[in-house]
Specification:
- The chain is built from five helices and eleven strands; from the N terminus they run E-E-E-E-E-H-E-H-E-E-E-E-H-E-H-H.
- It has about 240 residues and is mainly beta.
- The strands form two sheets. Strands 1, 2, 3, 5, 7, 8 and 11 form a seven-stranded antiparallel beta sheet that branches. It has a four-stranded antiparallel beta sheet with strand order 6-4-9-10.
């Protein structure tokens, strides 16, 4: 799957859905009872179409942080140091296991300054990272529905942090809940329980079961993919 984000939540900005694009592939390891003992999450960052600092991570929905025996990151320099990790390699202070992809998306590409990073034009190569998570108690199953991929916009972090998730997915324990409530009260967002979908139904993050051919910079996804609008506002019923 590809996960694509618009980083301007709770505003839409240019709505080009290329501010952070990462491909994810799951490899499951199972025991003789077909229970999942560990997973390898292979990520490939393909776009950082943003002029602001941001991080990215994955919450493993339904997987308690204390059920993780250990996490191995194939490229710790990409993961960075902004996330406070517990001894088992997950982010500390979380109910569900949270594993970082990168502390700084631009630095992951070797950039000290922020600039638009696109790999389709060949100027940059995708950045890869494999996150291997081993469990204390094997899981009955592990699917892409467990992958709650999100970004953190550092420019809006106040009394907690700003997170952007897919519609229908919950934020982590560390989100600035007061900011969410304030933005819901402003009338733009769907509800406190559905803060990552607008009143009209538009998301700020999407998951696509192919490697996403994301829009060029400043090209609104509703114009690039004409059926996107009716798909979004129909709640996925159309197209």
């Amino acid at each position: 799957y590809s996960y694509a984000f618009e980083d301007n939540w709770p505003s839409f900005g240019d709505y080009d859905m290329n501010d952070f694009v990462v491909d994810m592939e799951i490899t499951k390891f199972q025991n003789t009872e077909n229970k999942v003992t560990k997973v390898a999450l292979k990520s490939k960052v393909r776009s950082v179409g943003a002029a602001k600092r941001m991080a990215a991570a994955i919450q493993l929905d339904g997987v308690p942080a204390n059920n993780v025996k250990g996490v191995t990151y194939s490229n710790s320099s990409i993961v960075g140091t902004s996330f406070s990790l517990s001894s088992n390699g997950t982010e500390s202070g979380q109910t569900y296991a949270v594993v970082p992809i990168t502390s700084d998306a631009h630095k992951a590409f070797g950039l000290s300054e922020v600039e638009f990073v696109f790999t389709k034009d060949g100027k940059f190569s995708p950045v890869e990272l494999t996150i291997t998570v081993e469990f204390n108690a094997p899981l009955d199953n592990f699917t892409y529905e467990n992958l709650n991929v999100f970004i953190i916009n550092f420019m809006q972090n106040k009394a907690g942090r700003n997170e952007v998730h897919m519609a229908g997915y919950k934020a982590t324990d560390k989100i600035n809940s007061s900011l969410v409530k304030a933005e819901v009260n402003s009338g733009l967002l769907s509800s406190v329980n559905q803060p990552f979908k607008s009143k009209k139904g538009y998301p700020w993050a999407i998951a696509i079961p192919v490697s996403f051919d994301y829009p060029a910079e400043a090209k609104n996804i509703k114009d690039v993919f004409p059926n996107f609008k009716s798909w979004a506002i129909s709640g996925g019923e159309l197209h």
